[in-house]
Amino acid sequence: MHTSAEPSPLGDELLERIRSRAAAHDRDNTFPTDDLAELVACGYLRSIVPVVFGGLGRSAQQVARDQVRLAAHAPATALAVNMHLVWTGVARTLHEQGDDSLAFVLHGAVTGEIFGFGVSEPGNDLVLTDSITTATPQPGGGYRFTGTKIFTTLSPAWTRLGTMGIDRVSADGPKIVWAFIDRADPGVSQKDDWDTLGMRASQSRSTVLTGASARPDQVFRRLDPGPSPDPLIFAIFANFEILLAAVYIGIGRRAVELAVLAAGRRTSLKNGGRTLGQDPDIRWRVAEAAMMMDGLYPQIDALAHDLDALTDHGPRWFSLLSGLKHRATETARLVVDQALRVGGGSTYFAGDELGRLYRDVLAGLFHPSDAESAHATVAAAWLGPTDV
């Protein structure tokens, strides 16, 4: 297991400042520029970068815990910065296996680069294993990418976009090409299309690539379409699912806190003016929510620890990771629902924090792995592949 000489950069005062801005960013549909500036200043964006590269050297387990705390204060801010943390986590995981093909990401995180995740595409439910974006080879080993990427979280701020497309023209094609693209490239544009039910401050706008150029030194993989044993795919899946689960666990954690506050604040004439914290039905709801959350904390801790230790779970790794994401998002949704019932009618008003958590937590339905994919992955791990 990794240890870190550096404590968490997320101090209580910083987190409270971030929480104090969350409602306004949600209401106004604005990006949390101030939050990001403070997270950069405290070194949070280089948390998982090894010390040898100039980072804080925090483990995946430590950063997952940090993300739970950050999401409990501002879910959309946590989701936004997650994408940068995923790429730095991927680079760290590969580095620890002796693969420095993404060492430039670790160096870049220390020198101020902010990395975006440009993978999801409209109509592509194969996600990492195929693409509808075209990757056209260029002389010298570079590529030009043409296609649309959706849910490009951190859109107003990323400086380099990690993306992928398919090369169908090279002699050894088709190949899925992975590369980074600079924001200043003239072939990169963004749609102002992020007006959503929840996670509004993440500003996960669509990114349009029209011949966007990736230099040869920014092209880091060419893989056959379909499932791949390449360590990159595992590193992406593991870091993405663990850190994504952390965000939704943070939402659930905050929902329980708000339910407790509401139970202690609200009173009941039916029960002689006592607080709802004395009502057996309300006590059951709070207890149910707390018990559901108590099951998630050791799960994410254990899998993040195993990622740090490069534990060999063999073919079960993907089912464990997709299962964690599914349980985290579904459990958090149920916990927020219980908290709303404890909070009462005031939570239905615009601007209420629990009402905002209710909208934010629904985004978990749409992140990979979705419920269908997670169940298919786990079924394959236990039952083997289907014969169709």
TrEMBL record:
Residue runs in coiled coils: none
InterPro entries on file: Acyl-CoA_DH_C (IPR013107), Acyl-CoA_Oxase/DH_mid-dom_sf (IPR046373), AcylCo_DH-like_C (IPR036250), AcylCoA_DH/ox_N_sf (IPR037069), AcylCoA_DH/oxidase_NM_dom_sf (IPR009100)
Membrane-spanning intervals of the chain: none
Superkingdom: Bacteria
Protein name from the UniProt record: Acyl-CoA dehydrogenase
SUPFAM superfamilies: Acyl-CoA dehydrogenase C-terminal domain-like, Acyl-CoA dehydrogenase NM domain-like
Domain Acyl-CoA dehydrogenase C-terminal, chain residue ranges per copy: 243-367
UniProt cross-references to Pfam families, sorted A to Z: Acyl-CoA_dh_2
PANTHER family from the UniProt entry: ACYL-COA DEHYDROGENASE, ACYL-COA DEHYDROGENASE YDBM-RELATED
Keyword Signal attached: no
Keywords: Oxidoreductase
